């Protein structure tokens, strides 16, 4: 596009710094909030009032902040489950299934210990909680290993496999908690039996201990990708599997490894949601909605460009908006789905702005202007 003696052009970026990525993301968030303001205006609500309600409840309320923190932990675990295979050039679309597998593994342990009948064996709650955490990670890892093995050994598309596994495990959950299933609530309410209070996730400084796990995982993953041999091999495989194979990197082991790691973290999300989230403490009949929320891990992973540390504020923002949006929906008398609509607009805008991660807009003098001032072409 030409304006006067200057021409507007797109140029591919040669380098891209962290502060530039941060600036673009912040700009995208601001634009998304401005765009969504139209919804509030059409509903006859002041955007300033609406956003004040959303952010104050999500990040400053004694009731909303714990919900935001718990939702943040869940989303960040799902984001890491996506990021690890993503750095290897693979797409894990199976966080929901791995999340369900982790939850089922937790309840399998509880059933084996007699928790359903309130007949817990003589074990310390600390030991049982540790067993629950380990079981959730193993359940998610096992399901992830299926996709990783099929990809590495037979080059079967991991997107198709993980999506199919999502549906399989979804219906397995339904079988286990409904119509006489082994995990069904004794009251026959189509949901699992509830955890006794002694097995709720322990709190440290009034937050679930899982927040320290997930933040620690973020640091470890960043270090792994930046400093370790296996991190280099994962990145090399992601850049060019054929070249990685030529360099001696196993093209069977890497897909299996990244899906096991990703599945384990998604499985931990299954433990966290059903053992740490206030007011839940069971696999509720609305478990399908929570599984759908796991897919936001894909968006958070893409927005953060696969950086585990950059994913932390992104997951916190998405968690807060999902909680605050639900509150604003009821308090301001708006239609159902405001929270999901807000996340959708934010998601689309942030993804669209990924364009500027690869290209930049520059102004250049036109050829005529350059020749007039004696600048050689």
Structure in words:
By secondary structure, the chain is mostly helical. Helices cover 66% and strands 5% of the residues. It has a three-stranded antiparallel β-sheet. It has a two-stranded antiparallel ribbon with strand order 3-4. Strand 3 (203-204) and strand 4 (207-208) form a beta hairpin. The radius of gyration is 24 Å and the shape is globular. The relative contact order is 0.20.
How would the blueprint of this fold be written?
Blueprint: E1 2-3, E2 6-12, H1 18-42, H2 47-60, H3 64-86, H4 95-112, H5 125-154, H6 158-177, E3 203-204, E4 207-208, H7 210-227, H8 229-239, H9 241-246, H10 253-276, H11 287-293, H12 296-303, H13 311-331, H14 338-352, H15 355-358, E5 359-365, H16 367-372
Antiparallel strand pairs: 1-2, 2-5, 3-4
Overall morphology: globular
Largest sheet: 3 strands, antiparallel
The end-to-end distance, rounded to whole angstroms, is 20 Å
Structural class: mainly alpha
- Rg (CA only): 24 Å
What is the element string, with H for helices and E for strands? EEHHHHHHEEHHHHHHHHHEH
Number of helices: 16
Give the low-confidence spans.
Answer: none
Q: Which strands sit side by side, in order, in the main sheet?
A: 1-2-5
Number of DSSP strands? Answer: 5
What portion of residues is helical?
55-70%
């Amino acid at each position: 596009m030409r304006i006067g003696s200057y021409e507007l052009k797109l140029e591919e970026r040669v380098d891209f710094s962290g502060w530039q990525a941060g600036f673009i993301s912040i700009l995208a968030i601001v634009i998304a909030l401005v765009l969504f303001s139209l919804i509030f205006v059409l509903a006859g609500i002041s955007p300033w009032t609406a956003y004040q309600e959303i952010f104050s409840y999500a990040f400053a309320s004694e009731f909303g902040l714990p919900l935001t923190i718990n939702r943040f932990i869940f989303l960040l675990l799902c984001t890491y489950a996506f990021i690890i295979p993503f750095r290897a050039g693979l797409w894990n679309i199976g966080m929901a299934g791995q999340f369900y597998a982790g939850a089922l593994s937790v309840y399998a342990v509880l059933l084996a210990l007699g928790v359903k009948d309130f007949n817990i064996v003589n074990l310390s709650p600390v030991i049982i909680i540790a067993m629950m955490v380990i079981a959730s990670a193993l359940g998610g890892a096992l399901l992830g290993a299926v996709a990783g093995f099929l990809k590495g050994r037979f080059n079967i598309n991991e997107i198709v496999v993980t999506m199919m596994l999502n549906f399989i495990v979804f219906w397995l959950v339904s079988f286990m908690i409904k119509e006489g299933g082994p995990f069904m609530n004794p009251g026959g309410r189509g949901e699992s039996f509830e955890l006794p209070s002694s097995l709720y996730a322990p709190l440290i400084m009034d937050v679930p201990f899982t927040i320290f796990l997930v933040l620690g995982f973020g640091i470890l993953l960043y270090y792994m990708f930046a400093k370790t041999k296996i991190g280099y091999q994962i990145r090399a495989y992601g850049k060019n599997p054929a070249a990685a194979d030529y360099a001696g990197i196993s093209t069977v082991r890497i897909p299996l490894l990244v899906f096991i790691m990703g599945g384990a973290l998604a499985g931990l999300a299954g433990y966290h949601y059903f053992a740490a989230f206030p007011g839940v403490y069971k696999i509720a009949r609305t478990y399908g909605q929570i599984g759908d929320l796991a897919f936001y891990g894909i968006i958070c992973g893409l927005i953060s460009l696969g950086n585990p540390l950059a994913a932390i504020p992104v997951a916190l923002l998405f968690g807060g908006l999902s909680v605050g949006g639900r509150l604003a929906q009821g308090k301001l008398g708006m239609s159902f789905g405001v929270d999901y609509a807000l996340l959708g607009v934010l998601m689309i805008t942030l993804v669209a702005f990924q364009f500027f991660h690869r290209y930049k807009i520059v102004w250049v003098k036109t050829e005529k202007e350059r020749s007039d001032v004696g600048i050689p072409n």
